[in-house]
Amino acid sequence: MKISHIEHLGIAVQSIEEALPYYENVLGLKCYNIETVEDQKVRTAFLKVGDTKIELLEPTSPESTIAKFIENKGAGVHHVAFAIEDGVANALAEIEAAGVRLIDKAPRKGAEGLNIAFLHPKSTLGVLTELCEKP
Fold this sequence. Notes:
Number of helices: 3
Distance between the termini: 16 Å
Order of helices and strands: EHEEEHEHEEE
Helix content: 10-25%
Structural class: alpha+beta
Oligomer: single chain
């Protein structure tokens, strides 16, 4: 598996509209994309910091994993996502062979059209880890 960089940091928020003034007015970042990922029951907003992105995650349903995360842990850092150069499917096979528990057994579509997969935080030292690749 070849990781090229941190693709983004996912941050769970109650409301994108309430969070954006901090990121834009205080930190000076600019939101360049807001979209809803229906199957994940989440609305996302992206801001760039150099080559890395910040992904704000707002739940669109009380049943979404983001809503449950906020209910259990509060708003804050949700996951770290790595860009994979040699394919998420290959990385998943390699990681599973190393004994790491997978949330996704195969890549699926995520925000910004990326192919994504998650690794279980119980196998990644408590950090929800996302693998990403451009299709």
